[in-house]
Amino acid sequence: MLGNFSYKNATKLYFGDDSLKYLNDELPKYGKTVQLIYGGGSVKRNGIYDAVVDILKSNGKNIVEDGGVMPNPTADKLREGVQIARENKVDLLLAMGGGSCCDYAKAVSVSVNCDDDPWEKYYIRFEEPDCELIPVACILTMAGTGSEMNAGSVITNHDQKLKIGHVFGEEVMPKFSILNPKFTMSLPKRQMVAGIYDIFNHICEQYFSGEDDNTSDYIAEALMKSVIHSSLIAVENPEDYEARSNIMWTATWALNTLIACGKETDWMVHMLGQAVGAITDATHGMTLAAVSLPYYKMIMPYGLPKFVRFATEVWGVDPNGKTDEQIACDGLAAMEAWMKQIGVTMNITDLGADESMIEAIADATIILDGGYKQLTRDDVVTVLKASL
Ligand code: NZQ
Ligand code: ZN
User: Fold this and answer.
1) Model confidence at 110: pLDDT above 80
2) Domain span including residue 207
């Protein structure tokens, strides 16, 4: 049965190869001072920074620089961003980049007018914002996380060896996001592929839960088929605008709250991947890829009907003459073949982990109960060892 829910998505999107011009329509709605958030410099090399700065200047904005947001943004960098926003009394947090910049902007937003330490308040105590927020907007340069249209924000604390996400309320979602598929064309192939797997896994996390007849699962299957199809084109020809635009749009729909409506969700691959990331600082999508198959093989017997459906509906496995177990295994084998074909990292050893880190990764793994089997700590260790 479809559960009860309320649904609203607060983010306005501008999509397409001319979408940056709509920044001119949005900027007049906000005050004069803009904190311009970006990463390690890709936006300076590919020209996006200059194009955005020109638009900000022509709209009479004061620009406050906040570059150097690292992939997997840290609690220390967050505290720095909060300081910048406070000192300059900024009116808009404008993130240019991937999920890291967008997540970071949201974390700054909820922390500027708050006395507590942001890491402790939001990522340890999981409190909700109780202070005035600063609006966030995003100019997306990497497709994957869905951060451009959701309220998620993931922060890493290297001292505490933790990487934790907080899903805030709709008031924290970007007010608007600009999605120009051409802006993703300068991504190194490895990052493009990591983003593709991240998209696919977001859909899996919401699909592999519950056994009811649910509209969301049909949407999820369509999104999976779209991203599989476009990924194969994009890895052959990264310049293919049609494939890159479909990937970008699928990323948004994979995690903008829609397909989670009325159903349980799993998110254990993300919990395992985030723990791997907390210890190794590896690329998010690759951490998910490295642990996925051992995890899905472990839970498959507990959610067999859905794994059978996944095999036949998503991967086109012929069920004739096979047991349900064989059909489900063939589905996972098809998924594995696709993962290898697009070139994701298939084990955590290649991400810098080794046997001596397993206990620390297991310690950093938050165990959730929405999936087909609630893992024990021993199960977590088993999955991690099988991922080496
Ligand atoms: O820092 P720069 O120089 O910009 O380079 C970045 C970075 O090194 C580069 N890049 C991005 N766009 C580029 C580009 N390089 C060339 N051309 C471009 N157009 O790509 C690298 C990775 O960027 P990052 O933003 O870190 O990647 P992603 O979008 O995958 O974001 C990862 C972060 O988002 C979190 C992850 O945990 C991780 O911290 N997530 C956020 C979620 C959410 N808000 O809902 C959900 C996700 O599951 C995820 O956990
Ligand atoms: Zn993800």
Assistant:
1) yes
2) 189-386
